Amino acid sequence: MLANVIVAIIWVGVLAYAIFGGADFGSGFWDLLAGSDRKGAAIRKQIDKSIGPVWEANHVWLIFIIVFLWTGFPDAFAALMTGLFIPFVGVAAGIVFRGGAFVFRKSSVSVAQARFFGILFAVSSVITPFFLGAAIGAVASGRVSVDRVNDPITSWLAPTPILGGILAVGTCAWLSAVFMARDAARTGNFVMADYFAARALITGVVIGAVSLGGIFVLRSDAPTLADRLQTRGLPLILLSAASGFATMLLLRKERYTKARLPAIAAVASVIVGWGVGQYPWILVDQITIDDAAAPDNVMVALLITFGFASVLAVPALVLLLRLTETGALSSAETRADSSQAVLDRIQ
Q1: Number of other CB atoms surrounding residue 327 within 10 Å
Q2: Which residues pair with 281 in a beta bridge?
Q3: To the nearest whole number, what is the mean pLDDT of the chain?
Q4: CB-based contacts of 246, cutoff 8 Å, min separation 6
Q5: CB 316: neighbour CB atoms within 10 A?
Q6: Which residues, in sequence order, are bridge partners of residue 287?
Q7: Distance (Å, whole) CA 340 – CA 170
């Protein structure tokens, strides 16, 4: 019982990271496709404005997931880290390089430096969700062995992991475009809002096509997950499809604020559906949640820790998102930029 509660808590972290971190990573995809320095300047400015206040905070969810998985299910965690060493190194490298590039791009002293860090930021934003999606696909297809005997290449370079990586990148790009369309519209920049809305519509169609094709991949390469998605996970998959369609319809009608909620529901439904389809396995076809769980006293300690974290960290994150939502942080940043400009002229 305690093990299932801890898994549910971990899944809350997965949901939060998929939604908030996913939209964050997706911004790099649009940065990569923004075009030349002059052509893409307005797009990149909107990206910086949208993710600037929150991009670091999103990784709190990843740290939370790692700590709880490591502590609550040590055997499964060890199997994941050894069997999927290469994609997880790719994830770590992508997060580090992306964060550094995002900061240094703003303080570059030449166009060449800004261009280099901009490319590094964009490429890292794409490879990170790809490797995360590939790792998920490896678990979902039963390629992570609990005895830690895995081929370091074929464990993640296979049909389902590749499908997972592509869907992860596409979903992040789609969610990011929906969010940034709303952010641009909130500040009255409807040209930029229409730009991101159009790309969200195109990306949504592409994701839908890939997902339909992915059904055949899962049937042949991940039969355990595919069978359960077609039964108990089917209502959530249908809910995701309906929410995605509603998002697209609202974007077409230029209702950018309202489009965010069904977009979040679409992504959340897929994540929950994956969990429902995989249950009770923590590593599909390898080890169940109960068999991989740590002793009950460890689980109790995790529950207490979660209680403290909920009281201390969650209100701060909610406040940060609220300030971002109301534009308070953007206004403060604009005032700071104006003050700096005045000081530069005086000097």
Answers
A1: 15
A2: 288
A3: 89
A4: 262
A5: 11
A6: 283
A7: 38
Alpha carbon of residue 190 to chain centroid: 26
DSSP states of 6-21? HHHHHHHHHHHIIIII
Asked if residue 9 lies in contact with residue 29, where contact means CB atoms within 8 angstroms, the answer is no
Residue 347's CB: how many other CB atoms inside 10 A? 5
The secondary structure of 266-311 as a DSSP string is: HHHHHHHHHHHHHTTEEETTTEEHHHHPPPHHHHHHHHHHHHHHHH
Phi-psi region of 148 (alpha: psi -120 to 50; beta: other; left: phi over 0): left
| Interatomic CA distance for residues 12 and 153, integer angstroms | 30
Token pair for residue 330?
């953007």
Query: Taking the complete model, does pTM exceed 0.85, yes or no?
Result: yes
Shortest CA distance to 303 belongs to which of 15, 72, 114?
A: 72
Structure token digits, residue 6: 């801890």
Q: What is the 8-class DSSP label of residue 57?
A: T
Q: What is the DSSP string of 75-129?
A: HHHHHHHHHTHHHHHHHHHHHHHHHHHHHHHHT-SSHHHHHHHHHHHHHHHHHHH
- Contact between 166 and 210 (Cβ < 8 Å): yes
Residue with tokens 């995701």: 240
The two three-digit tokens of residue 342, written as one number: 């005045």
Rg (CA), the chain: 21
Per-residue pLDDT tens over the stretch 236-288: 999 999 999 999 999 999 999 999 999 999 999 999 999 999 999 999 999 99
Least trusted range by pLDDT, from 12-16, 26-30, 100-104: 100-104
Joined together, the tokens standing for residue 335 give 């005032």
Taking the C-alpha atoms of residue 22 and residue 230, their distance in angstroms, rounded to an integer, is 26
